[in-house]
Design brief:
heterodimer, A: four-stranded antiparallel β-sheet, globular, B: mainly beta, seven-stranded mixed β-sheet
Chain lengths: 114, 116
Protein backbone atom coordinates (compact mmCIF):
# COMPACT_ATOMS: atom_id res chain seq x y z
CA UNK A 1 0.00 0.00 0.00
CA UNK A 2 1.19 3.47 -0.83
CA UNK A 3 2.47 5.16 2.30
CA UNK A 4 3.19 8.59 0.83
CA UNK A 5 0.87 10.30 -1.63
CA UNK A 6 1.81 13.30 -3.73
CA UNK A 7 -0.78 13.84 -6.43
CA UNK A 8 -0.40 17.41 -7.63
CA UNK A 9 0.43 17.85 -11.31
CA UNK A 10 3.39 19.96 -12.29
CA UNK A 11 3.18 23.46 -10.85
CA UNK A 12 4.24 26.80 -12.21
CA UNK A 13 4.85 29.51 -9.67
CA UNK A 14 5.79 33.13 -10.13
CA UNK A 15 9.12 34.20 -8.71
CA UNK A 16 8.81 35.70 -5.20
CA UNK A 17 5.46 34.03 -4.58
CA UNK A 18 4.81 31.20 -2.14
CA UNK A 19 3.97 27.66 -3.19
CA UNK A 20 2.48 24.79 -1.20
CA UNK A 21 3.25 21.18 -2.06
CA UNK A 22 0.81 18.58 -0.76
CA UNK A 23 1.80 15.36 0.95
CA UNK A 24 -0.40 12.86 2.74
CA UNK A 25 0.85 9.76 4.46
CA UNK A 26 -0.46 6.54 5.87
CA UNK A 27 0.83 4.87 9.00
CA UNK A 28 -0.49 3.18 12.11
CA UNK A 29 2.76 3.80 13.96
CA UNK A 30 2.41 6.63 16.51
CA UNK A 31 6.10 7.46 16.17
CA UNK A 32 7.36 8.51 12.77
CA UNK A 33 9.30 11.20 10.98
CA UNK A 34 8.50 13.13 7.84
CA UNK A 35 11.08 14.52 5.43
CA UNK A 36 11.12 16.68 2.34
CA UNK A 37 13.83 16.44 -0.31
CA UNK A 38 14.55 18.55 -3.38
CA UNK A 39 15.86 17.00 -6.59
CA UNK A 40 17.02 19.54 -9.19
CA UNK A 41 17.66 18.54 -12.79
CA UNK A 42 21.23 17.61 -11.88
CA UNK A 43 19.79 14.65 -10.00
CA UNK A 44 21.14 14.92 -6.48
CA UNK A 45 18.69 14.63 -3.58
CA UNK A 46 18.92 17.53 -1.15
CA UNK A 47 17.47 17.25 2.34
CA UNK A 48 15.26 20.25 3.15
CA UNK A 49 13.28 19.78 6.35
CA UNK A 50 12.18 17.26 8.96
CA UNK A 51 9.08 16.95 11.16
CA UNK A 52 8.74 14.44 13.98
CA UNK A 53 5.33 13.04 14.82
CA UNK A 54 5.59 14.25 18.41
CA UNK A 55 6.87 17.70 17.57
CA UNK A 56 4.52 20.35 18.86
CA UNK A 57 5.62 23.05 16.46
CA UNK A 58 5.67 23.04 12.69
CA UNK A 59 9.21 22.72 11.38
CA UNK A 60 10.83 25.67 9.63
CA UNK A 61 14.15 25.99 7.81
CA UNK A 62 14.74 29.34 6.19
CA UNK A 63 12.22 29.72 3.37
CA UNK A 64 10.88 26.21 3.93
CA UNK A 65 8.15 25.41 6.40
CA UNK A 66 6.15 22.29 6.97
CA UNK A 67 2.41 22.53 7.59
CA UNK A 68 1.93 19.45 9.75
CA UNK A 69 -1.66 18.39 10.33
CA UNK A 70 -1.39 15.15 12.26
CA UNK A 71 -5.09 14.30 12.42
CA UNK A 72 -5.34 14.66 8.64
CA UNK A 73 -2.02 12.85 8.13
CA UNK A 74 -0.74 15.62 5.96
CA UNK A 75 2.68 17.26 5.84
CA UNK A 76 2.58 19.98 3.23
CA UNK A 77 5.74 21.86 2.31
CA UNK A 78 5.51 25.63 1.94
CA UNK A 79 8.23 27.45 0.03
CA UNK A 80 8.05 31.18 0.57
CA UNK A 81 9.45 33.86 -1.75
CA UNK A 82 10.18 31.41 -4.58
CA UNK A 83 13.44 31.75 -6.45
CA UNK A 84 14.40 30.49 -9.90
CA UNK A 85 16.71 27.98 -8.23
CA UNK A 86 13.72 26.37 -6.54
CA UNK A 87 12.71 24.76 -9.83
CA UNK A 88 13.01 21.05 -9.10
CA UNK A 89 11.19 17.87 -8.13
CA UNK A 90 10.20 17.75 -4.47
CA UNK A 91 9.79 14.47 -2.64
CA UNK A 92 8.00 13.81 0.62
CA UNK A 93 9.22 10.82 2.64
CA UNK A 94 8.39 9.06 5.89
CA UNK A 95 10.28 6.88 8.31
CA UNK A 96 8.37 4.74 10.77
CA UNK A 97 9.79 3.75 14.15
CA UNK A 98 12.05 0.76 14.06
CA UNK A 99 12.42 1.01 10.31
CA UNK A 100 15.55 2.45 8.79
CA UNK A 101 14.20 2.92 5.31
CA UNK A 102 12.49 6.03 4.03
CA UNK A 103 9.29 5.58 2.02
CA UNK A 104 9.11 8.21 -0.73
CA UNK A 105 6.23 9.70 -2.64
CA UNK A 106 6.35 10.12 -6.42
CA UNK A 107 7.24 13.78 -6.18
CA UNK A 108 5.90 17.19 -7.18
CA UNK A 109 7.42 19.10 -10.09
CA UNK A 110 7.81 22.83 -9.49
CA UNK A 111 8.85 25.36 -12.12
CA UNK A 112 9.51 28.91 -11.00
CA UNK A 113 8.97 31.50 -13.70
CA UNK A 114 10.40 35.01 -13.69
CA UNK B 1 35.30 12.45 1.60
CA UNK B 2 33.12 15.49 1.85
CA UNK B 3 30.08 13.86 0.28
CA UNK B 4 28.72 10.52 -0.89
CA UNK B 5 30.55 9.51 -4.03
CA UNK B 6 29.10 7.14 -6.62
CA UNK B 7 30.73 5.66 -9.67
CA UNK B 8 30.30 5.44 -12.52
CA UNK B 9 27.96 8.37 -13.02
CA UNK B 10 26.64 6.79 -16.20
CA UNK B 11 26.71 3.20 -17.38
CA UNK B 12 25.39 1.74 -20.60
CA UNK B 13 25.41 -2.02 -20.76
CA UNK B 14 24.10 -4.74 -22.99
CA UNK B 15 21.23 -6.89 -21.84
CA UNK B 16 22.52 -9.98 -20.10
CA UNK B 17 25.79 -8.47 -18.89
CA UNK B 18 26.68 -7.97 -15.23
CA UNK B 19 27.28 -4.51 -13.78
CA UNK B 20 28.81 -3.22 -10.56
CA UNK B 21 27.88 0.11 -9.05
CA UNK B 22 30.04 1.63 -6.36
CA UNK B 23 29.23 3.88 -3.43
CA UNK B 24 31.73 5.59 -1.15
CA UNK B 25 29.83 7.05 1.83
CA UNK B 26 30.71 9.98 4.02
CA UNK B 27 33.54 9.08 6.37
CA UNK B 28 32.17 7.98 9.73
CA UNK B 29 28.67 7.24 8.45
CA UNK B 30 27.90 3.71 9.51
CA UNK B 31 24.53 3.46 7.81
CA UNK B 32 24.37 3.08 4.03
CA UNK B 33 21.33 2.74 1.77
CA UNK B 34 20.71 1.92 -1.86
CA UNK B 35 17.63 3.21 -3.68
CA UNK B 36 16.47 2.99 -7.26
CA UNK B 37 14.64 5.73 -9.15
CA UNK B 38 12.95 4.79 -12.39
CA UNK B 39 11.94 7.49 -14.86
CA UNK B 40 9.24 9.75 -13.40
CA UNK B 41 8.97 7.71 -10.23
CA UNK B 42 9.84 8.16 -6.60
CA UNK B 43 12.64 6.34 -4.89
CA UNK B 44 12.38 2.59 -4.34
CA UNK B 45 14.29 1.18 -1.37
CA UNK B 46 16.69 -1.64 -2.17
CA UNK B 47 18.94 -2.41 0.80
CA UNK B 48 20.24 -0.99 4.07
CA UNK B 49 23.62 -1.61 5.66
CA UNK B 50 24.66 -0.96 9.22
CA UNK B 51 28.39 -1.39 9.23
CA UNK B 52 29.13 -4.40 7.05
CA UNK B 53 25.92 -6.23 7.73
CA UNK B 54 22.65 -5.82 5.86
CA UNK B 55 19.79 -6.09 8.34
CA UNK B 56 17.29 -5.11 5.66
CA UNK B 57 17.67 -6.34 2.11
CA UNK B 58 13.96 -6.78 1.55
CA UNK B 59 13.84 -4.26 -1.27
CA UNK B 60 16.12 -6.15 -3.66
CA UNK B 61 13.80 -6.95 -6.58
CA UNK B 62 15.26 -10.32 -7.55
CA UNK B 63 18.15 -12.66 -6.88
CA UNK B 64 20.01 -10.98 -9.74
CA UNK B 65 20.62 -8.10 -7.36
CA UNK B 66 23.18 -8.30 -4.58
CA UNK B 67 25.18 -5.84 -2.53
CA UNK B 68 28.08 -5.94 -0.18
CA UNK B 69 29.92 -3.53 2.02
CA UNK B 70 33.46 -3.98 3.21
CA UNK B 71 35.38 -2.27 5.98
CA UNK B 72 32.24 -0.44 7.01
CA UNK B 73 32.81 1.91 4.12
CA UNK B 74 32.55 1.31 0.36
CA UNK B 75 29.57 -0.60 -0.94
CA UNK B 76 29.07 -2.33 -4.27
CA UNK B 77 25.68 -3.09 -5.81
CA UNK B 78 25.89 -5.86 -8.39
CA UNK B 79 23.24 -6.62 -10.96
CA UNK B 80 23.70 -9.88 -12.81
CA UNK B 81 22.27 -10.67 -16.23
CA UNK B 82 20.88 -7.16 -16.61
CA UNK B 83 17.44 -6.66 -18.10
CA UNK B 84 15.97 -3.57 -19.73
CA UNK B 85 13.69 -3.01 -16.75
CA UNK B 86 16.82 -2.53 -14.63
CA UNK B 87 17.40 0.79 -16.39
CA UNK B 88 17.12 3.47 -13.71
CA UNK B 89 19.15 5.84 -11.56
CA UNK B 90 20.68 4.02 -8.61
CA UNK B 91 21.14 6.29 -5.62
CA UNK B 92 23.26 5.64 -2.60
CA UNK B 93 22.88 7.48 0.70
CA UNK B 94 24.60 7.41 4.04
CA UNK B 95 23.82 8.64 7.52
CA UNK B 96 25.39 8.71 10.93
CA UNK B 97 24.42 5.57 12.83
CA UNK B 98 20.85 4.84 11.88
CA UNK B 99 18.58 7.46 10.40
CA UNK B 100 18.60 10.20 13.00
CA UNK B 101 15.96 12.87 13.05
CA UNK B 102 16.84 16.28 11.62
CA UNK B 103 19.56 14.90 9.37
CA UNK B 104 17.83 12.72 6.86
CA UNK B 105 20.25 10.97 4.57
CA UNK B 106 23.02 12.46 2.49
CA UNK B 107 22.63 11.20 -1.05
CA UNK B 108 25.16 10.70 -3.78
CA UNK B 109 24.55 11.96 -7.32
CA UNK B 110 23.58 8.51 -8.50
CA UNK B 111 24.54 6.13 -11.27
CA UNK B 112 22.35 6.27 -14.35
CA UNK B 113 22.16 2.72 -15.70
CA UNK B 114 20.89 2.10 -19.21
CA UNK B 115 20.44 -1.47 -20.41
CA UNK B 116 20.25 -1.76 -24.20
Amino acid sequence: AQKITQTQPGMFVQEKEAVTLDCTYDTSDPSYGLFWYKQPSSGEMIFLIYQGSYDQQNATEGRYSLNFQKARKSANLVISASQLGDSAMYFCAMRERGNNRLAFGKGNQVVVIP
Amino acid sequence: GAGVSQSPSNKVTEKGKDVELRCDPISGHTALYWYRQSLGQGLEFLIYFQGNSAPDKSGLPSDRFSAERTGGSVSTLTIQRTQQEDSAVYLCASSHRDLIANYGYTFGSGTRLTVV
